[in-house]
Structure formats: C-alpha cells, structure tokens
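seq:
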Amino acid sequence: IKAMGSDAVANYDNVADFESGNRMVQQAMDSFGRLDIVVNNAGILRDKMIFNMSEEEWDIVINVHLKGHFNLSKHAAVVFRQQRSGVFVHTASESGLGNRGQGNYAAAKEGIVGLSRTIARDMGGYGVRSNALRPRAATRLVISDEMKAAAQRGGAAGMGLQGLEMFEKANPPDAIGPFVAWLCTDAAENINGRDFLVSGSLIGLYSLPEIVKKADNAADDKIWTLDALDAAMPAVVGDLKNMWPRKEEKPAAAQA
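struct:
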C-alpha cells in the first residue's frame, strides 16, 4: 500500500479478543484521525463432520468469525454513532446456507448475516450502514496444498484437479475487492442490511427470508395438536423435498 503512494499500518492483535477490537479502532483513530469503514474479514477453517468435531474446533471458529466480527464492530460502532457516519462490510459465506463438514463455519457465517442485519437496524438512524457479502473466491484458505493433493487423487468433494483449476481461474480473490469498495461509496448509500454473492463474474443479491406458506390456528385460540397438524401441514409443505437425502445409498454388495 505504501509502495502505491498511500499509507497503512498493521495490527497484530487477536480479533477473537474483545479488548483487541478496541485497540484496533484506537490505532486507526491515532494513525489517521478518524474511522470511516470497517471490513470484517478475519477467518479460519477447522472442517469436520459434525460427529467428529471437537468442542475446541467449534469454539475457535465461532470465536474468530462471529465473536471477532462483534468485537471490532462494537467498538467501531461507538465511533460511528458519535460522528453520525460509517460503513460496515462483513464477510459471510455461501457455506452459511449449509455445507457438508462445516457445521462450525456455517453457523458462524450465517450468524454474521444476522449480526449484519441487526447492526443495520441499530445504526441506520445514525447514518451508518451494514451489509454482508458471500465471496466465492479461490483464496489460500479454501484452496490449500492438501486440497490440491486430494484433487489430484480424485478427492476434494469429487471436484478433481481440473475442476479445482477451473474454479481458481473463474474466481480470483482480486474480484472481491472492487465490490467491497463499491459498498463503501456514496453510490451504495441506500443499501443497508442486505447480503450479496460475489464471484469472479457474478454479483447476486439474496432475498430476505420470508414465510412462503403458513397454517394459522389462532382463530380457534388453542394450541396445535398432532391431529390438527397432520391435517394442516400438507397445505404448508406440499411436495417439499429434502435438500439432501436422509441417508446415503450403499452399494448392493455392501447391503447384502
């Protein structure tokens, strides 16, 4: 950054520590005199199937991602509220929609979306906006040497080495930065509390969750019974299918 003619400072605190968030904000204020933009991006992975995941693997991912987003946002929000301006950009993930072997990461990332929406509500009246993005990018966090080796063997979620190389080519990390910057400009001043997919070629706006069908028992002023639910729920769920099969089919030889 300095070589390009601008100025920057580094911070070596732990984002998962509450007081570190305060020190980061104070360092920015001391170095530049003000704070205008916070991009929460710190993250790690500890992928495991839920039945193999340890408490430590759960806690460290939640602490770095979700608690880390809170730690910096809370202290920055004090400054933003006082100056009646500011922008938050939070890094969520498509994995938050559900991804095999990433229960800790998915929970943290979808929690970040909820946090971002709530910050938007808390701070919107003070001229502050908060949005989240779900980047699809071939960073070193997701394209590791281990994954490349697995792809070479035909693993890596069945992607294979060629598929992995295609993903890297189609989704360079450089493609994410311009959209992050755009969200911080005046052109996006009316965008608050939303989340976006960002990839090498695609920008997508996610809809806000909404009830698509419902059954209402309020008129009878009574608690649902199982019989009443049996009668009412077909109209709600219809022919709704599982997003994922309930069990993996075993080969016929294995079944025998």
